[in-house]
Amino acid sequence: MSRRRTASTKKKLALLVTAAAVAGGGAFALATTSNASQTNTQNAKTLSATNSTVCQGLATALGNNQSFIAGQKASPDAQSAARIANREAVIAQIKVQQKASGCTVGESAQGSQAAQPAQSAPAATATSKATPPAGNTGTGAAAGSQVCNGSTVTLSGEAGAPAASSNQFPAGTTLKVTNLDNNKSTTVKVTSVSGSCVLLNNAAFEQVREPGKFLIRRALIQKVG
């Protein structure tokens, strides 16, 4: 009887240990599954936020180019047809980028950019003169002063050496654009007209961009020449 009881007790202990091990393993598996689920959720949120920023930047770039074309059509000159053809090619490329990034193809937005047609500046009269706000916009800004306060900066999609386009400054003006989120800056000359204060071409935008972003929300824009 003593041997049978001892064997029975040992079997019960073994079964209890096995059950505990299985339960512990199950708890570990559940904890691992839970952690993996949380990680996947966090990664999905991060990816969604990144995609949202990319899509918004592309939509802004598309809207700026569309506004530029509308301005050229409203106030055409001898070069308008060539400019419009160039911007239509840029728009086609932006749509390709939208599709590749999973954005809504053709989605357009202006953000904080105020679209103005080319050659729309009011003429000064004998009794009043159009004076741009100091340190804000216009060709009358002093060299080194901050301009276009509060404007965001995106890319035009144009190729070539680093350059900018603007509806505030004539060709030949030198502007310095600083991305305050990473403290990178680029100094470029305005070479063409656009529908916003400053649009950087692809090469210039690459010098100041954050990876995966097509929009600079916190920009310091200065006229330096």
CATH superfamily: RlpA-like domain
Q: Over all CA atoms, what is the radius of gyration?
A: 30 Å
CATH architecture: Beta Barrel
- The structure class reads alpha/beta
Count of helix runs: 3
| Total number of strands | 7
β-strand amount = 5-15%
The CATH topology comes to Barwin-like endoglucanases
Model description:
This protein is an alpha/beta fold. The chain has one domain: Barwin-like endoglucanases, CATH 2.40.40. 45% of the residues lie in helices and 13% in strands. Helix 1 (2-74) runs antiparallel to helix 2 (80-100). It starts with a helix and ends with a strand.
Task: Spell out the blueprint of helices and strands.
Elements: H1 2-74, H2 80-100, E1 153-155, E2 164-165, E3 174-179, E4 184-192, E5 199-200, H3 202-208, E6 215-216, E7 219-223
Parallel strand pairs: 1-5, 2-4
Antiparallel strand pairs: 1-6, 2-5, 3-4, 3-7
Helix pairs in contact: 1-2
Brief account:
The protein is an alpha/beta fold and 225 residues long. The chain contains three helices and seven strands; from the N terminus they run ααβββββαββ.
Throw out a few tags for this protein.
about 220 residues; alpha/beta; Barwin-like endoglucanases; 7 strands; globular
